[in-house]
Every structure is written in structure tokens, then in C-alpha cells.
Amino acid sequence: MAVVDPHSFTDSTHPFATHIHLSLYFDFPSFTIHGSALISLPGPYTGPLSLDTRSLNVHSVLEPRSNTPLQFSLSAPDPIKGSHLTVSLSNHSSVLIVYSTSPSSSALQWLSPPQTFNKTYPFVYTQCQAIHARSVFPCQDTPAARVCFSARLNVPRQLSAVMSARHIERRAPIAGEAAELVCGDSLWCAEGRVVEEFAMEQPIPPYLFAFAVGEIAFREVGPRTRVYAESVPAVLDSAAREFAGTEDIIRQGERLFGPYEWERFDLLVLPPSFPYGGMENPRMVFLTPTVIKGDASGAQVVAHELAHSWTGNLITNKNSEHFWLNEGFTTYAERRIVEVVQGEDAAVLNIGIGWRGLKEDIERFKDRMEFTKLKNKQEGVDPDDVYSQIPYEKGFQFLWRIERQVGRPTFDEFLKRYIDTFKFKSIDTETFLDFLKTNIPGIGNDIDLELWTEGVGIPPDAYEPVSSIYTKIVSLANEFNLGRMPREDEVADWKGQEWELYLESLPKSVEASQILSLDAHYRLSESKDYEVKVGFLQLAISSKCKDYYAEVEKTLKEVGRMKYLRPLYTTLVQGTGKEEEKVFAKRVFAEAREGYHPIAQGVVESILIKHV
Ligand code: BES
Ligand code: ZN
């Protein structure tokens, strides 16, 4: 067997699928999808075909034209990779797999009506990165294998579906079009069901497959952009306001990287349990509602997810060991865009916050230094467990270092050539380095490329940003430690980012009385900006200021974004003499768990297992 990806059973001596057609019947009461996947190969093939699955019930594997059964076997589940599905083919160029998902599918969050805003209809959505597509349909679930999709989603008439794909039509179900499904024609064509059809004609890595089904509506915000969300006028209106500048951001992306190749750039604002800030699903980015702060600062996350349209979605990391190629480049591009649309100060603050985050995560991984390398070994490692700022910030620093060396005009030209050369390809770190050395001769004499990509920690030529506002905030934070509260006039024009950096720059723990007095002045515990609120609550917990535990509990129950869950739970349970906090964290998790996406449930669980 020839392995291409430590997180997949895909065998590179087998043909890679060219197209997957999905028929999906959504059964909300049982949190189940009854599906079929028609997998097309480049041509007739004889031999075994390895596919990834996780918690899928495989009912049958068929030759699609005659519906004759084919031999298959499903392995016992590996805790990280899931179950290996092997299908035996003889001169077949496609195969049909009939299956059902299970309620515990790791990609899917099923929300019952009371968990939604309007409380009338259920909602379901996917999060497939890093390795969760296999829990929705069988596939070669590695970014090394790019594939086109088409899909028919059969949903209740009151709901609508969106996908990271072109919407073809909404229509009545047709008898016979999904007869092989476990639900059969009788349910597929039942009264009150509709079919939504989609197609993704450009080959994408499976982790970019995405859909959401619910009571969804939209507002137009630009020539190629709508914002979608649960059909709540206040949510849609505030989202439309927050993202009004999106077209401007797309133009900046095009200026930096070349044409936008995906036609539409729609945004979907998910319920508060969405586990990430944003996810770059092609044609439709998924976003947490916490980015809507009412001051257009959500543009940073939009700039980031947009930048993935080039770095990540056009050029894709071959597997998670080269994840920095996705996130480092995207973080670099995000900041170039922020610099233009929000100004240089905003970009420098963003870099400064990133620098603090990098140092913190290098410290967090001091016992697992392998994951402080840009390129790292992930055999036997769950990518969700080693997710950190390091690929983002060290990757950013590496590219920024190259920019400083060659100058911006040369680097910009290099970036465009890089995108153009590798678009619609999945590549690794070596491919990037070879291209860099060819196109910028002598770069290896000025920059230690091996130290940057294969070394642990932060290389000596990484660079902490300087600007008067950055320096001022960091020095005010140092003074707070000596007992000085920042004066009102000093913070008068601070917005979320300034406070975020200030809080990140304070010592890990201070006197409880200082916490109370800071909050009495500036009401940080009540901030509508979760970056500020969570930064403050984390400081309160590590300073053992119990006055805020009720607010911590409330926060852990209202949002499911892992960027907030991770530090709050970790700060509660990490360290000695924390018996009360551990009991508290366990109780809150038991009560909040149902409301989290399965990926977030897993991450919180591993934090608690490690420390409690
Ligand atoms: N692709 C990531 C999210 C992701 C990474 C999901 C790994 C699953 C596995 C996305 O582009 C991202 O980086 N989101 C950030 C946004 C931020 C950097 C602006 C987030 O969610 O915080
Ligand atoms: Zn990203």
C-alpha cells in the first residue's frame, strides 16, 4: 500500500475519483442522512479501491448500471482515521455506495428547533476540515485527491439548503432518482419534501465539501456576494451591514493574487455553536455569528477566508503535515488585505496579536516540539488535537521574512506566479521550496530555509512588529503589572483589537482586586466583542477571581467557537489546587455539551481528560 496521507486509507496506487454524485435524504427526527455516493474513476479499473469512512452504515456497494452487488469489506474503526472501506472492482469505472450516516457523525451538527434562533425548525450543517468528510460520505478523504461533486439534497419543504457549490435548482422529488436509498421512493417522494440540486465543477479537496439545511434566508451585499443566515431579520440585517465592504475585499484579493476563480463569494452566518471563526468553503464561506460586532471588524475574518480562495482552495496542502502552506500564506494575504482596507495600524496590531499567540502556542507545545515545526510528522496524531496558531503565525513570519529579503514588488510577483503555477494542485513543503529557490535564486544564502520549515521554535530572524500604538499598548500592559490602571484618555479610541492585545500582554495572573478594578473602569466582562470578553474572563480565572464564574458559565453555554472554549476550559482545569474549578468545568461541560458541534465536544473532552 502506498500512503499519501497519514490521516487517510487512500492508496496512491489506486485511481483517484474524478467525480462524486451524492443523493442525500435528510431525516431530521433521527439525526440521520440516508445517502448514496456514485464515485466515478478516470477509467475502467480492476482491483481493490480503498475509501475512508467514519461511523457510516454501509448497506450495499453496487455496480451502478445493473445495480448488481459488489464485494466490499469495512474494517473496525481506527480512533483517528475511522473505518477502511475496501471495494473490489473488475473493469469498473464507477461504483455506487448505499449508506446511512449515524447521529454521531463527526462533521454534522444537528440542531433541534429549540436550539435555533426562531425555535420552529431544525437545522443541520457540516464542518469537514480536517478529516470529517468521511463521516458524511465514503471518499478518498485526503486533500491529495481533488474531486468534483454534484448533489441532490432531499429536505422538508419548509427548509432550504445551501452548499459550497453552484445551486442548480429547487424542485419536486422524482420517483426512481434515488430508489436504491434505504428510505426508498416512498419517503424520497413523500408529501412535503423538496430536492435542492447543486454542482461543484472545479476539483476540490473533500474537506471543502459543505452544506447547511434550515430555515435560511439571505440579503444581497455585493455583485457576487449574498449573506445567508437563519431567517431572522435582525441577524440578516446586522450581517449585511457588517459585510457591506466584501466586494472591496475581493478586489484587493484579486490585486494581490490574480483573478477570483470561483464565480460567487457568498457568506453563511451559522448559529453560535459553529466551532470556528470561519471556514473557507468554496463559493460559500461559513462564519461564526461572533464576528458580527457592529463595527465592520468582521472584515478581518472575511479577508482571511477569502484569501483561502487562492491559498488553500486553488493551491492545497497535500496533507495536514503541510497545513502551514494553507494557513501561513492565507494569514499573510489576510494582513495585506487588512493593511489596505483598514489601514497600516490595524495590520500591525493584527501582526502583534499574532506574535503573542505564536509565543503562547510555542510554550503550549513545549512537550511536543514536533508541532512547533512548520512541516511536521502527524502519523498517529489527530489533526484537531494539534491545531494551533503555529502554522498560521510561524508561516506568516516565514513569508514576511522572504518579503523583507526580496522587497515587496518582487515578492508580489512571485506570489502571483506561485498561484498560477500550482492552481488546482495539492502540493507539499518541498514543492514550494523548490519553486522558491528556482524563482528567487540565492534565497537560500540569505534565509535558512531548512531552519524555518523543519526547525522547532521561533527562528532568530522572526520579527516582532513595531508601531507606536503597538508599543504603547504593550508598555501600558507592563505598567498595569506595577499597579497602574490605563487612564480614560489613553484608551479613549481603543476598539476590540487594542483591548485584545492589551489583555494578551498582561501577566498570566494578577491580584483579584486589580481585575475587579479594571472591569469597574472598562466593563470588559460585558464586552460584545468575544475576543475581549474571553480574554478578560481567562485572566479572571487564572487570577482566581471567582466573581466572574457565572459569566464564564454563561459564555461557555452561549458560544461553541473553539477559540473561546479552549482557553476558558483549559484555564479552569490546568494546574494544581484547582479542585473547585475542575468540578465547575465538568458540570458546565455536561450541561453545555449538547449545544456544541461534535468536533468541539471532542476537543473539550480531551482537555478535561488531560487535566481532570
Ligand atoms: N481553515 C480554517 C479553519 C479550520 C482549520 C478548520 C483547521 C478545521 C481545521 C479557517 O480558514 C481559519 O483559519 N479560521 C480562523 C479565522 C481567523 C484566522 C481569521 C478561525 O476560525 O479562527
Ligand atoms: Zn484559514
Automatic annotation (TrEMBL):
Residues that coordinate or bind a peptide: Q127, C128, Q129, P275, Y276, G277, G278, M279, E280, R561, M562, K563
SUPFAM superfamilies found in the cross-reference section: ARM repeat, Leukotriene A4 hydrolase N-terminal domain, Metalloproteases ('zincins'), catalytic domain
One Pfam family hit: Peptidase_M1_N
Localization terms from the record: Cytoplasm
One BP term from GO: proteolysis
EC number: 3.3.2.10
A cellular component annotation (GO) from this entry: cytosol
Keyword Zinc part of the UniProt annotation: yes
Cofactor: binding details: Binds 1 zinc ion per subunit.
Keywords for the protein's UniProt record, in alphabetical order: Cytoplasm, Hydrolase, Metal-binding, Metalloprotease, Protease, Zinc
Alphabetized SMART domains for the sequence: Leuk-A4-hydro_C (SM01263)
GO MF terms, alphabetically ordered: epoxide hydrolase activity; metallopeptidase activity; zinc ion binding
InterPro entries: Aminopeptidase_N-like_N, Aminopeptidase_N-like_N_sf, ARM-type_fold, LTA4H_cat, M1_LTA-4_hydro/amino_C_sf, M1_LTA4H, Peptidase_M1, Peptidase_M1_C
Substrates-to-products reaction catalysed: an epoxide + H2O = an ethanediol
Source taxon at top rank: Eukaryota
Gene3D superfamilies per record: 3.30.2010.30, Neutral Protease Domain 2, Peptidase M1, leukotriene A4 hydrolase/aminopeptidase C-terminal domain, tricorn interacting facor f3 domain
Active site, renumbered: E305, Y392
Domain Peptidase M1 leukotriene A4 hydrolase/aminopeptidase C-terminal residues, every copy: 468-608
CC cofactor: Zn(2+)
Main location: cytoplasm
Binding residues for Zn(2+): H304, H308, E327
Task performed by this protein: Aminopeptidase that preferentially cleaves di- and tripeptides. Also has low epoxide hydrolase activity (in vitro). Can hydrolyze the epoxide leukotriene LTA(4) but it forms preferentially 5,6-dihydroxy-7,9,11,14-eicosatetraenoic acid rather than the cytokine leukotriene B(4) as the product compared to the homologous mammalian enzyme (in vitro).
Family to which this protein belongs: Belongs to the peptidase M1 family.
Full protein name: Leucine aminopeptidase
